């Protein structure tokens, strides 16, 4: 990489080093190559296009899904002296004209554009006459119906960009790419040939924990948890505005310095609460998921889901807001299956496929909450990563788990997949094993399969859990090309040839689990909570912010 680029990193952005894959990504984009970036939340995706934009001739187009996010980024860039603008529906005609003139005069380095504005005829015409450097598509998972944030306009980006300038390099970035979503994005953008930079999703400093949600007990636990983190910042997520208000009040009457945040609040109040949280006037913000995208407060010490989220992707993104500074982050979720049922009911008027997609995401969420497997293993598997050992830093790893010998179960599961010619997904495979002749199963001549009904002594729920574990242990894998049917991996084929003993973990049965038996959170070397270091980092940040004329956490 040219020295100039590195020196701009320090000079403009104030960073002495690249993080993770940033350097090769910047290099790749600057060599005019299509670049696909998958990095967890907080890892520093923005820099991957901001720095190349600054050192390139012309203007980079940045497509971003949220108007608030755009404004936030443009403000930050302007504050450090970079000429950046946005083009979206909040601008009136003369403001839009002013922005366009800036771009045409070649002063603007980054132009943030909402997907809706990009598709407008007049803007296409304008962009055709501009001198452009590349196109960045942030939050690229919005392209996929299989993700959790689908935005139909995102699917039009590729054809518009092709009209504007067919040979411009494209960089697409996302934090939520399950293999399925990743494939969907690449196809839609015709970026199958792009260079892929995928970072590990493992956030080693986050502790994952799930507790059963019980009416009053959980509220007590919530208060106790927050009080034991006195003076530290935390986010509590709830699903509805009403619940947000209720919990915020509950905390306030318990002398906790908390305030609500949701889209139903007057915008002045909402902004004040957010600023107070960022500036440490408030310890706790109780919020719907409207809060957080693009918010960058490095010292959030815990994220609590008082209600279960709609997908594991959403969960991971929200918990990802804890411990961005690399120090302790505790991710606690209160869970009951009834919440999953409730969420599913909310979707009842949606089109069938949409409801089915949402249901699959919900079932994955429930499976995560109920699993006895190391939580990190479960999550990373969901994101297509294999994580061999137990992490030792989640509640499941910390408790005495019920283990059972799984060899024969796994054998049955793998046989079922083989005998149905690897054409069945999880749900139907389980039906075959328990011998339930659903319409789908009978259409495959189930009665001729030796494995049909072989596992009928064991409840359906257990089989579901066993097959999931076979996936986590890398014996079965989802074939994303064909609707997630389960196929044997090479390791699975070896297992069938020569089966061996495996430990399986029983799922939680929260109905009978003692809710007060939460394991102690271990302090592990390297991620120990260090009060002094924390204060130092905080002082450092304040100094940097001040020197740039920014409030401490913008
Ligand atoms: P993402 O979009 O991946 O969620 P951001 O781009 O918002 O993450 O960056 C998260 C935080 O990391 C920001 O505070 C940003 O300033 C900081 N950051 C990014 N790159 C670096 C770096 N090379 N060194 C130090 N901090 C960085
Ligand atoms: Mg981002
Ligand atoms: Zn673990």
Automatic annotation (TrEMBL):
Residues 218-366 form the Helicase C-terminal domain. Its cofactor is Zn(2+); Mg(2+). GO terms for biological process: DNA recombination; DNA repair; DNA replication; SOS response. The keyword Metal-binding applies. Keywords: ATP-binding, DNA damage, DNA recombination, DNA repair, DNA-binding, Helicase, Hydrolase, Isomerase, Metal-binding, Nucleotide-binding, Zinc. GO terms for molecular function: 3'-5' DNA helicase activity; ATP binding; DNA binding; four-way junction helicase activity; hydrolase activity; metal ion binding. GO terms for cellular component: bacterial nucleoid; cytoplasm; replisome. Its EC number is 5.6.2.4. Residues 26-195 form the Helicase ATP-binding domain. It catalyses: Couples ATP hydrolysis with the unwinding of duplex DNA by translocating in the 3'-5' direction. Belongs to the helicase family. RecQ subfamily. This is DNA helicase RecQ. The lineage of its organism: Bacteria, Pseudomonadati, Bacteroidota, Cytophagia, Cytophagales. The chain holds residues 1 to 554 of 725 of the full protein.
């Amino acid at each position: 990489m040219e020295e100039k680029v590195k020196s701009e990193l320090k000079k403009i952005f104030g960073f002495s080093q690249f993080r993770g894959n940033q350097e090769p990504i910047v290099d790749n984009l600057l060599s005019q190559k299509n670049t696909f970036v998958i990095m967890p939340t907080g890892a520093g995706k923005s820099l991957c296009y901001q720095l190349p934009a600054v050192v390139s001739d012309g203007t980079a187009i940045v497509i971003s899904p949220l108007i608030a996010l755009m404004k936030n980024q443009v403000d930050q860039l302007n504050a450090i002296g970079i000429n950046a603008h946005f083009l979206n529906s909040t601008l009136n005609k003369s403001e839009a004209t002013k922005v366009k003139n800036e771009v045409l005069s070649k002063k603007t380095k980054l132009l943030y554009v909402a997907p809706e504005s990009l598709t407008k005829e007049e803007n296409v015409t304008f962009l055709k006459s501009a001198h452009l450097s590349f196109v960045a598509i942030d939050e690229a998972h919005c392209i996929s119906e299989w993700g959790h944030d689908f935005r139909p306009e995102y699917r039009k980006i590729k054809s518009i960009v092709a009209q504007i300038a067919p040979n411009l390099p494209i960089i697409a970035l996302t934090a939520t790419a399950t293999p399925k979503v990743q494939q969907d994005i690449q196809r839609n953008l015709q970026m199958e040939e792009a260079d892929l930079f995928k970072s590990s999703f493992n956030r080693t400093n986050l502790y994952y924990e799930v507790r059963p949600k019980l009416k009053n007990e959980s509220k007590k636990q919530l208060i106790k948890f927050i009080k034991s983190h006195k003076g530290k910042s935390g986010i509590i997520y709830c699903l509805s505005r009403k619940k947000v208000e209720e919990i915020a009040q509950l905390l306030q009457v318990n002398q906790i310095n908390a305030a609500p945040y949701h889209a139903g609040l007057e915008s002045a109040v909402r902004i004040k609460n957010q600023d107070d949280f960022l500036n440490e006037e408030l310890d706790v913000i109780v919020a719907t998921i409207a809060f957080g995208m693009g918010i960058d407060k490095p010292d959030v010490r815990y994220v609590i889901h008082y209600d279960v989220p709609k997908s594991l992707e959403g969960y991971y993104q929200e918990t990802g807001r804890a411990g961005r500074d690399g120090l302790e982050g505790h991710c606690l979720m209160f869970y009951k299956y009834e919440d999953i049922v409730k969420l599913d009911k909310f979707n009842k008027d949606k089109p069938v496929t949409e409801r089915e997609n949402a249901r699959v995401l919900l079932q994955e969420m429930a499976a995560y909450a109920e699993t006895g497997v190391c939580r990190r293993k479960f999550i990373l598997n969901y994101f297509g990563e294999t994580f061999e050992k137990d992490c030792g830093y989640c509640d499941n790893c910390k408790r005495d788990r019920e283990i059972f010998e799984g060899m024969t179960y796994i054998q049955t599961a793998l046989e079922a997949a083989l005998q149905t010619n690897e054409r069945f997904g999880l749900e139907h495979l389980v039906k075959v094993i328990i011998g339930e002749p659903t319409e789908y199963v009978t259409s495959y001549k189930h009665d001729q399969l030796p494995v049909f009904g072989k596992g009928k002594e064991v409840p359906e729920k257990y089989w579901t859990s066993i097959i999931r574990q076979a996936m986590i242990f890398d014996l079965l894998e989802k074939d994303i090309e064909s609707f997630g049917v389960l196929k044997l991996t090479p390791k699975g084929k070896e297992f069938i040839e020569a089966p061996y003993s495996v430990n399986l973990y029983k799922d939680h049965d929260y109905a009978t689990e003692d809710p007060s038996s939460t394991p102690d959170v271990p302090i592990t070397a390297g991620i120990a909570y260090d009060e002094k270091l924390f204060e130092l980092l905080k002082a450092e940040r304040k100094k940097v912010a001040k020197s740039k004329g920014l409030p401490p956490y913008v």
